[in-house]
Every structure is written in structure tokens, then in C-alpha cells.
Write a structure and sequence with these properties.
Belongs to the sigma-70 factor family. ECF subfamily. The protein is mainly alpha-helical. It is built from ten helices and no strands. Helix 2 (17-35) packs antiparallel against helix 3 (42-58) and helix 2 (17-35) crosses helix 4 (69-88). The protein is globular.
Amino acid sequence: MNNQEQLIIQKLQNGEESGLRQMFDLYYSPLCVFALKYIDSFDLAEDLVQDIFIGFWENNRVEQLNTSLKSYLFTSVKNNALNYIRKNKKYRIEELDDEFDMMMDDSFDPEDLEQMKLKLYQELENLSQQSRIVFEAIIFQNMKYKDVAEDLDISVNTVKTHFARALKQLRGSFDIILMIMLP
């Protein structure tokens, strides 16, 4: 657990909404990308992640936290996504469990990470210019949809559409995208 996460947990334990905002800012986008490993719809992924945050806050889950905040949130997204899948019978769950275990393993080889980054950058070249700009702003610069929309003088919905298109095209690189996004 890093210092930033400890500060967020402390604020949440004190009932400070700023802790929820910081948790959201830090983990929302990575959790949405992670949810897309399980489900095909960007809107559904966002709904699932938002439900996790709402439930965490409303049910004061910080008091029951016995693991890192990151692990709790990713496990919650995984469980909710798998419940959705079971309900809709869409995917083979065993394969997804293996991928989750790999994502939660913090002992990633730096050389492998560099190779994966190179692969991602090559795949970025295949995106449309607008989708690539939106993707890079959200992932690499950690910008919010609203800020990207203002910078590019387009609507927030257009930003979401370009981001969803980029994620769909980069589906095979979600692991590296998440590693880049997470602290």
C-alpha cells in the first residue's frame, strides 16, 4: 500500500468526501479499462465501476477493508463483471481468472514491460488521429474527459466515443495499459 492510498483511506475513514474524489480520480479510468477485459460495452464498464464506488461509499466499506484499496477495487470489479457474465453467459470465466491473477501480481519483469510498451506504441499508430490523441491524453496524461473535450473543442460524449473506439482496437493490450495507468 503506497502513501497516496494510505492518505485516501485515512480520509475515507474520517468520512471526508475528498477521499472518495481522490479514490475516483486515481482508479476510475484503470478500473473501466480493467472491466473491459470482461465485458464488451464501455458504457456497461463505466456503470459497473460507478456502482463499485457508490457501494464503497454508501456502505462504508473502508471499515471492512482488509487488503489494499487497489486490490479491493479491482477484485470488486472482477466479481461484479463475472456476476454479469454468469447472468448473461457470455465468456469462459477460467481464462479471465488467470488474466486477473497476472494483473494483480506486482512482480512484473521490467524487460517484459518495455516490450509490452513497445507493442502498445506500435498499436497506437493504427488508431485514427483523434482517437489516439484522446487515448494518450486520458491514459498517459491522466486527463479527465471534460478536460480533453475542452482542449480539443469537442463534446465529452465525443471524447468518450473516441476513447471507447481506441480501447476496443487496443483490446489485446489492456494489461500494459493498466500497468501504465496504475501508480
